[in-house]
Structure formats: C-alpha cells, structure tokens
Structure prediction request, 186 residues.
Amino acid sequence: MIADDAMALDEKALFAGRPVKIVSNLPYNVGTALFVRWMTTDWQPWWQSLTLMFQREVAERIVAQPDSKAYGRLSVLSQWRADPRILFNVPASAFTPPPKVASAIIHVTPRAPRMEGIDPKSMERVTEAAFGQRRKMLRASLKTLTPKTEELLERAGITPTQRAETVNIDGFCKLALAWQAMNDKA
Prediction:
C-alpha cells in the first residue's frame, strides 16, 4: 500500500514496467484530473486497465458519443486511445451516509491510437479550446489556438460552422494533427 498524494505520484516510475490494473473509488475532487492525466500520458500507458468509480454524470461524459449533451472534452480524451464503458450505476443509497449524487463504475482498456503522431498536449489544447465555448461554432471557439481558424479547420476537413459536440473522435484527431502541423511550420 502506498499512502501518498495521487496527484503528486509519478506512476510510470513507481510501477517501473510492471503490469498494473487500477481499481479505485477516486475522490471526486481529483478524479477527473487524474483520469485526464492517465489518458494523456505517452502511449502505451503504464496501466493495463482502469476500473474506476465516478460521479455518474462524469462517467456518462467519458463514454458519450458525438451529438449528445454529455459529449465533450472527456469523451474525446478517453476515446481516442482507449475503450471506456460503463459497467453499472451505483445508487447514492449504497453509501452511508448517502451522497447527493449517483455514481457509476467505468472500465477502460487501452488500445492503439486512432491516428498516429498526435502529441497528447495538442489533443488537450484542441479539445480545451473547442469545448471551452460549447455554444460557439468552431471558427470562433478555436480562436484561442490560432487566429487562422478557417485554415486550421480546412486542413482538418471540418466545416467552420460546426460546433464541437458534432465532431467525432477522428475529426478531433485530424484537428490536433492539423494544429501541430501549423505550429511546426510557424
């Protein structure tokens, strides 16, 4: 057992290539941050699988598909290199004292990336910008990345009037690659 701050651990060094399966009821206040960090490490990840309990709303975001209210940054970051699924819901009544929210158990297994060559930091930046202003069209929400949003979207094959929640995972992969290429050229 390791008693330490999970946000301060260097898991890769700690587990040193040993096969790791994480099973945890993550504290809700750091669960999402840990999950994002684990999804954006160098690939292949240091873990073989993740079985985690989240607030149900967060679990639904992780597995959400495009064109749904729950689809967002967590959906893209989790699904571009892994297969997440909800195993089951956990009602608040399962805990004493019961929390004010329902929970869900998710299982995540890594797989080969949908597209090679994407820097995880690029995917993080692109999804953060795209979903940072959900109601705006991508040509407006991506202005925090580059003033050349039209060129960026054209390179990725995405219509500038689309909103982030309508772009599938492959579209975000193309967007991240296009943004990297534009930055490499600059």
